[in-house]
Every structure is written in structure tokens, then in C-alpha cells.
Amino acid sequence: MLSSYNRDMSLVEQIQKDITLAMKARDEQRLSTLRMVKTALQHREIEKMAPLDEKESQAVLSTLIKQRKESVEQFTKGGRQEMADKEAAEIQLIEAYLPKAASEAEIVAGVKAVIAEMGNPTMKDMGAVMKNAMSRFSGGGIRVDGKVVSDVVKRELAGK
């Protein structure tokens, strides 16, 4: 049911188009998630007092995904599986509007490249390695989970 993401349209326009499709299909779950995403984007636009660019829109969506992942974890711990499943479904829907996330192998390769460029960083340099790795990924338009990058950086630096 998701219309393919059209790069000629802004993210908000695309989401509005998909809201209309969800309404016509009477898909309540999708409709409520899309409305929540649109509201978050509009809220950020109001805070900024200017239209969001592609990167800023993606940052809002990444934040929404991160919040949902935390909720899934909490609901699972609390034995509320139906709520965890609902949040997981929302994550999948929101991710459809973002560029493909990097795989663990791509993250490891990127972190190794950053470490090689920096010479011989130690655990004390973890912050600098993280900063360089995250900017490398975002500069390349690659979406990564900061927690996964952090784990990989720790593992790589500990292996030295």
C-alpha cells in the first residue's frame, strides 16, 4: 500500500499523499502512524521557522524510530507483547521513508577505515573515532544506528 517514495516531493508531501491512500483503504494503523509522523515533521518545521531539508526530515524520522525501539524494549520487558508488536510495525512503516540502513558489515568497514585514517587511536580516542565515523556515514547519506556504531568502535579499539 505504500506508494514508492518520490524524491521530487518533499517528505511531508509524500506522507500527506500516503495518508490519503491509507484513509481510502481504511487502514487505521497506517493512518495513525503517518499522522503522527507528519505532526512530528510539522512540529520540527515550526521550531525551525523554515521548511526542513532532506537531512533534517530524516533526523526527525530517525528520532521517531529510536523512540519506538526504546518502547519495544520496555513493552517486551513489561510483558506487553501486543504493544511491542504495534511499535515494531510503526518502526517498519517509518523506515520505509528513510534511505536503507547500513548493514553491520558496512558499519565495520566504515569504522575500520576511520581508524586507519586516524593512525593508531586508543580507547581514549573513542569520542573522536565516533564523531569521525558518524560524520563519514551521514556525509555519504548512509543511515546508521549510533548504538551499533558505538559497539563496533569499542570492539575495534579493544582489539588493538
According to CATH, the fold-level topology of the largest domain is Hypothetical Protein Yqey, Chain: A, domain1
CATH architecture of the largest domain: Orthogonal Bundle
User: Alpha-carbon distance between the termini?
Assistant: 48 Å
Give the H and E element order.
Answer: HHHHHHH
Overview features:
globular, 7 helices, mainly alpha, Arc Repressor Mutant, subunit A, 160 residues, 0% strand, single chain, disordered N terminus, Hypothetical Protein Yqey, Chain: A, domain1
Give a description of the structure.
72% of the residues lie in helices and 0% in strands. It has 160 residues and is mainly α. The protein has two domains: 11-95, Hypothetical Protein Yqey, Chain: A, domain1 (Orthogonal Bundle), CATH 1.10.1510.10; 104-158, Arc Repressor Mutant, subunit A (Orthogonal Bundle), CATH 1.10.10. Helix 5 packs across helix 6 (126-139). Mean pLDDT is 84; it is low at 1-6.
In short:
The protein is an all-alpha fold.
Fold blueprint:
Layout: H1 11-25, H2 28-48, H3 54-77, H4 81-95, H5 104-117, H6 126-139, H7 146-158
